[in-house]
Recover the amino acids of this structure.
């Protein structure tokens, strides 16, 4: 008998009956099956929030890891293109629930928040203060394609709107002076600036827009097999982890060290809990 | 100028309703950056803060009931002495997000939109009973009293609604939009029973 692995070696050293008994005990051990089961979450590849190429899977990935470790759940993430994500019928999904077209009896657990920011290139604009739409008059605003609303109102303030297919493109347009400022998710903007323009990080100003928030959530279909049990474990885990230093450390890593931001994010998270608690199966 | 703004605020409800289909088309046409957020002029603080949020629902009432809602809100708030800015979003999910998370002080809701816990958290005023023949499905304005603007709006709306019921304006609007014979005899009594705080 080959004994290439430690497991095989152990089993090889036992008699047939003992090996059978050991195997039976392992199968019957409480929770063994649950621990070995891998829960798969559908997601989009949206660095630095969800990303297969970042250590820990990005901000959302790290938060999900913290929560899953507490819940005793092993998970993996299935990254989908945006259109497929919006139509996902998977039992388990992570991301923004407002984007999903499919309706399910989903328990939604908020695990983090994102904010929008406007970004500009300081060599072209030393300081851009925007308190009203009129402050943008005569400027060109960059946005991701298909996301702009009410173009006529922008036009009425003499604001030109340019579209691009990616955040990298928007940042390049800023650097070349083709646009004056661009709107994007704050952490995504900072991430892509570091990735694409490591020599010019200081040249980009990123200003959070107050009152804009997007949820980072994990969702479990309560009607799926083991869905209610999984939701129960994650709910308890969320209660235990959301006020820990480990949780705060992940927020600080991605949102920065500003204590006012951390406080604001905590308040937002509480409101998100209020919003989604009706979806939990209690 | 103020009068113009006021009229525009209320009329924007109707205008928004008519544009919602187009907005929905825009939302569902996202492809390359489907997970990106919407960029609207209001991000830059050009327009007044939204005071009351509503949502479009294909299951919701007729066009006549939509116009009635806009007129009732306008009349009640005016009678209460405030001029709120009303916005209508394409879905309940988005509207509720704005109400709960981004702290819009008031939201137009059906009774089923709020859980028992939420009904305790927010103050509600029933201003209309849908399914008019049976006068049995309350449509409410829910106010977040922890929001300073919410408390002020609640006071104004509650007071104003009772005032227009008392002076006959409420029934006049009902008859104008739904027809004289559509309103059950005990309609106002039933509406008052939905608002137990009323004298």
């Amino acid at each position: 008998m080959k004994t290439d692995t430690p497991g095989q070696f152990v089993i090889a050293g036992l008699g047939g009956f003992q090996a059978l008994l050991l195997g039976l005990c392992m199968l019957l051990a409480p929770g063994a099956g649950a621990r070995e089961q891998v829960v798969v979450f559908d997601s989009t590849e949206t660095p630095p929030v969800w990303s297969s190429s970042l250590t820990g899977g990005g901000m959302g990935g790290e938060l999900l890891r913290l929560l899953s470790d507490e819940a005793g759940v092993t998970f993996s993430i299935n990254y989908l293109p945006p259109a497929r994500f919006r139509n996902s019928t998977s039992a388990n999904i992570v991301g923004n629930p407002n984007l999903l077209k499919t309706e399910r009896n989903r328990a939604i657990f908020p695990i983090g928040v994102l904010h929008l920011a406007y970004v500009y290139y300081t060599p072209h604009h030393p300081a851009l203060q925007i308190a009203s739409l009129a402050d943008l008059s005569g400027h060109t605003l960059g946005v991701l394609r298909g996301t702009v609303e009410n173009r006529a109102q922008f036009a009425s303030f003499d604001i030109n709107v340019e579209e691009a297919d990616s955040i990298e493109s928007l940042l390049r347009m800023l650097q070349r002076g083709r646009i004056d400022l661009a709107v994007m998710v704050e952490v995504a903007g900072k991430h892509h600036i570091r990735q694409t323009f490591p020599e010019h990080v200081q040249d980009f100003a990123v200003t959070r827009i107050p009152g804009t928030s997007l949820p980072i959530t994990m969702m479990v279909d309560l009607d799926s097999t083991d869905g209610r049990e999984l939701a129960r474990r994650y709910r308890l885990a969320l209660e235990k982890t959301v006020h820990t230093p480990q949780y705060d450390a992940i927020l600080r890593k991605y949102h920065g060290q500003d204590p006012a931001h951390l406080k604001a994010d905590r308040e937002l998270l509480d409101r998100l809990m209020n919003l989604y608690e009706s979806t939990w199966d209690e | 100028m103020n009068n113009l703004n006021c009229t525009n605020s209320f009329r924007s409800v109707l205008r928004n309703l008519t544009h919602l289909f187009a907005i929905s088309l825009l939302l569902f046409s996202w492809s390359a950056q489907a997970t990106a957020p919407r960029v609207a002029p209001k991000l830059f603080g050009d327009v007044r803060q939204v005071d009351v949020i509503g949502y479009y629902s294909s299951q919701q009432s007729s066009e006549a009931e939509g116009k009635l809602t806009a007129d009732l809100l306008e009349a009640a708030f005016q009678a209460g002495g405030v001029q709120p800015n009303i916005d209508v979003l394409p879905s309940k999910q988005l509207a509720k997000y704005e109400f709960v998370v981004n702290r819009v002080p008031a939201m137009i809701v059906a009774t089923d939109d709020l859980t028992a816990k939420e009904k305790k958290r927010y103050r509600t005023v029933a201003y209309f009973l849908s399914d008019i023949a049976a006068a049995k499905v309350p449509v409410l304005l829910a106010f977040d009293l922890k929001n300073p603007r919410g408390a002020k709006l609640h006071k104004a709306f509650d007071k104003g609604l009772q005032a227009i019921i008392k002076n006959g304006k409420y029934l006049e609007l009902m008859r104008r939009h739904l027809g004289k014979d559509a309103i059950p005899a005990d309609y106002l009594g039933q509406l008052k029973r939905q608002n137990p705080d009323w004298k």
Remarks:
- Chain A touches chain B through 50 residues (CB under 8 Å).
- The first helix of chain A runs from residue 6 to 12.
- The longest strand of chain A covers residues 204-221.
- Chain A has two domains: 32-114+213-279, 116-211.
